[in-house]
Design goal:
Blueprint (H helix, E strand, L loop, with lengths): L1 H32 L4 H9 L13 H9 L2 H8 L6 H13 L3 H11 L3 H22 L22 H35 L2 H15 L7 H10 L5 H10 L4 H13 L3 H6 L8 H36 L1
Helix pairs in contact: 1-6, 1-8, 1-11, 2-3, 3-4, 5-7, 5-14, 6-11, 7-12, 10-11, 10-12, 12-14
């Protein structure tokens, strides 16, 4: 038990350090950008695309903030704008697929997933889903009624205060990661030493195989599905290192997880916005499963074809 605690703690600290090198600078820079002309310029740049997605120009604000920061920041922006139920639902679906883009993309790169795959899948799902919902759903024209509106924080008035706010947010982000990751790594190490993870892998194996991956990808899937890409990154990075998860399986797992991660938290936090959250959950899960099975099938077929060509040469 002592050995498990020691090893799990060391792995947890190493993981926090790895993620902290991504989270701290990204959070600090983006917080500062909020108080410069850069963010408004980006918002103005994407505003013309909004009508194609069934959104008003103001909807660009939570979309940009959500992709630069996280869902909580995006929800804060939504609460300050009058939007229809349909608009809020489209924004929620888009941000479910594509949020916290910089940090979560950095996590994907650490696991070995290629940059273009992450961006194409996340942004592609966000835009395609918005266009489809806009075309299919004819209702939701009433103004959304927001509940549980948080108190507005006082805006910083100097560059020192802005930088201090950025450092505080970055530090809190790393602290939150540490509070979750270190105990989680200790628990996982204990489960590994007790051979309980083997039982879990066998239990989830049919679902993992259905998605076109080997059983040793189960911990990667479970971590991302329950606690998200950023929070579950420690487990995923360690699983890739220790469980022998191939680059192919890691990529396929991430394709599934970028469409469907932290499904409980990311669904529940949209409840105060007055939108139907069950369809939101169903869309994420169904799209993730269909996309992952399709990609895995094509990847396997290409692999078989290349194998046959090699055999004939």
């Amino acid at each position: 038990m002592v050995s498990s605690l020691k090893k799990g703690s060391m792995v947890g600290l190493q993981t926090v350090w790895t993620l902290g090198k991504i989270i701290f600078p990204v959070t600090l820079i983006i917080t500062i950008l909020q108080y410069t002309p850069v963010l408004p310029w980006i918002i103005d740049l994407v505003t013309p695309l909004m009508s194609l997605l069934g959104l008003s120009g103001d909807a660009a604000i939570p979309l940009v903030i959500g992709n630069f920061l996280n869902l909580y920041a995006a929800i804060g922006a939504i609460l300050s704008i009058d939007l229809t139920v349909k608009e809020v639902f489209i924004i929620a679906v888009m941000l479910s697929f594509s949020h916290n883009l910089f940090i979560e993309t950095g996590v994907a790169l650490k696991v070995g997933v290629k940059l273009w795959i992450v961006l194409v899948v996340r942004l592609g799902l966000a835009f395609v889903s918005a266009i489809v919902i806009n075309l299919v759903w004819q209702g939701g024209s009433e103004i959304a009624q927001y509940g549980m509106i948080p108190a507005q924080q006082e805006q910083p008035t100097s560059w020192f205060a802005i930088i201090l706010e950025g450092m505080e947010k970055a530090g809190m982000g790393i602290l939150q990661i540490a509070i979750i990751i270190i105990p989680l790594m200790i628990a996982i190490q204990i489960l590994k030493d007790l051979k309980w993870l083997d039982v879990f892998s066998n239990w989830i194996a049919p679902f993992t195989r259905m998605l076109g991956m080997k059983e040793n990808t189960s911990m990667t899937l479970a971590a991302g599905l329950l606690i998200g890409l950023a929070m579950g990154a420690g487990v995923m990075i360690q699983a890739v290192k220790e469980d022998g998860v191939s680059k192919k399986d890691a990529t396929i797992a991430f394709i599934f997880l970028v469409a469907c991660h932290a499904v409980i938290e990311d669904t529940l936090i949209f409840i105060p916005l007055g939108i139907p959250v069950l369809p939101l959950l169903i869309i994420r899960v169904v799209v993730a499963i269909l996309l992952t099975i399709t990609v895995a099938f094509i990847w396997n077929r290409v692999g078989i074809a290349k194998g046959k060509e090699a055999a004939y040469e």
